[in-house]
Each structure stands twice: as C-alpha cells, then as structure tokens.
Specification:
Blueprint (H helix, E strand, L loop, with lengths): L1 H13 L7 E6 L4 H16 L2 E9 L6 H15 L3 E5 L2 H8 L3 H20 L3 E3 L4 H14 L3 H4 L5 E2 L2 E2 L7 H11 L15 H17 L3 H30 E5 L16 E6 H4 L4 H14 L9 H12 L5 E3 L5 E5 L2 E5 L13 E9 H4 E2 L4 E2 L7 E5 L8 E3 L6 E5 L5 E5 H7 L4 H4 L4 E4 L2 E5 L3 E2 L11 E9 L1
Parallel strand pairs: 1-2, 1-4, 2-3, 4-6
Antiparallel strand pairs: 5-6, 7-8, 8-11, 9-10, 9-16, 10-11, 12-22, 13-14, 15-22, 16-19, 17-18, 19-20, 20-21
Length: 474
C-alpha cells in the first residue's frame, strides 16, 4: 500500500501537479483506476491542505450506470468529499455531434469537469489514466500514423488536467485496492472488443508482454517520457523559427463588418521563403503545421497532405495560390507567401469570396433507392471525383505552367490537353485566365471551376470512394 502511495506522491511532486491549498476536481467513474485516484487524493488531502470535489458522469448507456453513481456517491460520503453527478444521453449527443459514442462520452466528461472547475474555483482537474492507458494510446497513434507528440501518448499535465496515476500500471492499481479491501465497479463494455483500444488492451499488449518482452508497458512509459522531452524541445525551436521567418497580421475586429464586438480578429501570416528554406526540414513541417492550425478552428482535419502542399508553395519559385481546409488560402508573390484564414479579406486576392470544402464519401454514403443508383449533385459548385484514382490529395489554386486536362478526342478515347490550349480554344479572355480556380493533383487538373471537370477523374460504377468538393460563395 505504502509503495504505490509513495510512487504516486513522488510523481505528483516531480511533475509539479499539486501545490498546497489547491482546489481539485477529480473525475471518478467508479472503476478501479478512478477509485484508486480518489483514495490517493484523499490521502494527499489528509497530509496537505487541499479542497477536493468529485464529479461522476452518468452516460445514459449501461443499465447498471445508476448503481455506479450510487457507489461513487457512497464512497465520497465515507471520505466527506463533495459529490457532483452529471447526466448525459451520450448516444443522442453522438448523433448530434456526428461522432462515435466513445468520443461523445469523452467530450461530455471533460466539459462536465470544466463546468465543475469553474463552479468550485478549481485549479486542477484530476483524471485516472495509468501506464497501460499510455501504452495503448502510443500504439493506437503509431498504427494510425502520428508525429512525436502523438507517440508520446498522454501528457502527465496539460493545462488544468493532471494524471497522477500515469506512473503506475493497472496491475499495481488493482493490487493496491485488493490490499485495502476496496471494491470498485466493473464496466462490461471494457471487456468487449468493439473499441480499437480494447483490442489493443486485450490482445496486442498481452501478446507482447508474454512473447516479445516482459515489462513492455513500463518500457513504453520511459520511451514516452523521452519523446515528450523531445517534443518540448522541438516546440521551442519551432516557436523561435516562427518568430524569425513569419510575420503575423491581425485585422482589427471593429473594422470588420458583421463581426461581433470582442470577436477574435482575422489572421494572416507572411512567410519569408528564403529564411524559411534555411530551416531544418523537420522544423519547416512543424512550423507550417502550427501556422495552419493557428488559422483553423481545430487541428483534427489538418494532415501531412496539407502541410506538404504549403511546403511545395514555399519551396518552388513562381507566383501561385493554393487553397487548404477551412477556407485557408496561401498566395506566393515575389519570395513571400501570405497565408490567410478563411475570414481574411485580402484586396486583389484571386477569389477572396469563396470557401472550399472537401469530403471523402464511400459508395454506400451516396447510393439511393432500391436500385442503388448513384445520385450525382446538381449544384454547379459541388462536384464528385473518383478518389480511388488519386495518388495525392488535390488542392485548389490558380493555373500553373504544365497544367493539363484529360478530355475525350473525336474517337472517344482519353487524351491530355494543355490547360493553356483549352483556355484559348474556349475563348476565355486572357485577363480572366489567372483568376479561374483550378482543382489539381500536381499538374493534372480535376476541375476548371465554372467550365469542366476531367474525364479521368469522373465517378463511375466502379468507384468505391468519392471526393466531394463544394465551393461556397460567401
């Protein structure tokens, strides 16, 4: 018993999680991990000045959830700790938010913790992740594809959120509770393989522990610490590089029509290409990711494809423009690239009054009727393309040297036609040609907006994945 407490207490002090007099909100589900967290914090509170409040979330999914709530309330009563119950209809929230129940539950829990923190003036929010959770997260991110930050797993401290049990394994937690004779609630969904993390927990980590290396969870924990330190260092270097080569511009909120008082101003960055290209390649990509993220409502839809597209714009000479998610535009002019948020209005921009949205659909998403026919969009500014044929994610930009379209010749065969020749044959005035939006994969034009799409990328009965591109005129 003393061994686990000493280990966790040392970790709390090492990570600077708690200070005397802190007010703490703890998320307690009633499972082994969170019960252990409650007992550890109760003991900390006995030794050091601290105010502790417990928040329990009833997800509205399992029939036994009400029993869990009563168990946690009783446990709090035993230790004279204030208890807050938050109820949610997680299946309904998942449908409303367009995500899975696991993600909806996680999101609601943290919102509940934040509400309680505000209500009770809490300095910290304690949650019960342990070393096994850290290992599962590292593997999940590795399999999905991740940078250093993702491979570092779960941080011990992030803002107000602290994880005191991140230094101990699940087996240590259960042994501690057994030694105390402390019962806990058991969630049967944790025993199912419906969730990816459960499959990692039940099959992959046990196999590695038994057949590859004993103590793998502990070893991965040490690796996570090293990766976290590396991430911190690279973040510092990226911030310095950003200051050296990127100038941030903000328009005054009160100067923008239709923007509420107190709103965040619209942003743009001007990046000096020569200075940028002196940076180490690893820092270049990190800088561009942070730059796009700063102009976006969230990082979820930002991928390496978007970073690579912006990197190419900075690395290749020539005045061009590309479009990224969330309406972000990047324009290269005379050795500098101006990257603008979707809200930024830049005089003289190629098309400042449009937003481009990309969505990947499966064939099943768009089938309609008993005959399972494809129902193509009728909107002039919404087009479908065969995503299976794409090797790279396309970008929206203006025309560039070497661009071509795929058309059909007089015999119906596919052939390439230079975009320049097509514009001439279509009698499009020269003054307009550089302002027409072009959706392209490298030099292959998928869509000359307002005119035609490529024959090569047209959706057919064999198409399994569809890229829907929609232009919204603001």
């Amino acid at each position: 018993m003393t061994k686990l407490l000493d280990k966790v207490f040392d970790y709390i002090k090492e990570q600077g999680m708690l200070q005397p007099g802190d007010r703490v909100v703890a998320g307690v589900s009633g499972g082994a991990d969170s019960v252990c967290l409650l007992l550890v914090l109760a003991e900390w509170k006995r030794r050091y000045p601290m105010e502790l409040t417990v928040v329990h979330v009833h997800h509205g999914i399992r029939p036994e959830a009400a029993d869990d709530a009563r168990f946690v309330e009783s446990l709090c009563g035993r230790y004279n700790i204030p208890y807050v119950l938050e109820k949610a209809d997680v299946p309904a929230l998942a449908a409303e938010w367009g995500c899975g129940e696991e993600e909806a539950g996680r999101r609601f829990r943290y919102e509940a913790f934040e509400r309680a923190a505000v209500q009770y003036g809490a300095d910290r929010i304690a949650v019960a992740h342990n070393l096994n959770d850290l290992s599962e997260t590292m593997l999940f991110h590795l399999f999905r594809g991740s940078g250093i930050k993702g491979l570092a797993g779960i941080p011990a401290v992030r803002g107000k959120v602290i994880r005191p049990l991140l230094c101990v394994e699940r087996s240590e937690i259960e042994a501690y509770l057994k030694e105390l004779g402390q019962d806990f609630c058991r969630d049967h969904t944790n025993e199912e393989d419906a969730y990816t993390r459960n499959r990692i927990r039940h099959h992959i980590l046990p196999y590695v522990e038994e057949h590859i290396v004993s103590g793998c969870v502990r070893h991965m924990g040490r690796t996570a610490e090293l990766l976290a330190e590396t991430e911190d260092y690279l973040a510092e270097q990226t911030a310095q590089a950003m200051a050296a080569c990127a100038e941030e511009i903000c328009a005054p909120a009160d100067a923008m029509p239709g923007v509420l008082e107190g709103a965040v101003s619209r942003q743009a960055y001007i990046v000096d290409c020569d200075v940028f290209l002196l940076l180490h390649p690893a820092i270049r990509k990190r800088l561009l990711y942070e730059l796009i993220k700063a102009l976006s409502p969230g990082a979820k839809d930002i991928t390496s494809v978007h970073v690579d597209a912006l990197l190419e714009l900075l690395a290749r000479e020539g005045n061009r423009e590309i479009h990224l998610p969330f309406g972000i535009r990047a324009v290269r002019e005379y050795g500098k690239v101006r990257v603008m948020s979707g809200a930024w209005q830049q005089e003289g921009s190629v098309h400042p009054d449009q937003r481009v949205e990309f969505q990947i659909l499966s064939r099943q998403d768009v089938l309609s009727g008993e005959e399972k026919n494809l129902i193509f969009p009728q909107n002039e500014y919404t087009k479908w393309f065969d995503y299976d044929k794409m090797k790279k994610y396309p970008i929206m930009r203006t025309r560039a040297e070497g661009d071509f379209l795929t058309i059909r010749d007089g015999a119906g065969a596919l052939c390439h036609k230079k975009l320049k020749d097509y514009l001439v044959d279509a009698k499009i005035p020269a003054r307009e040609r550089d302002r027409i939006p072009v959706l392209a994969e490298d030099s292959h034009v998928l869509w000359l907006v307002g005119y035609r799409i490529s024959e090569y990328y047209k959706v057919t009965e064999q198409t399994e994945r569809i890229l829907q591109v929609q232009i919204e005129i603001l």
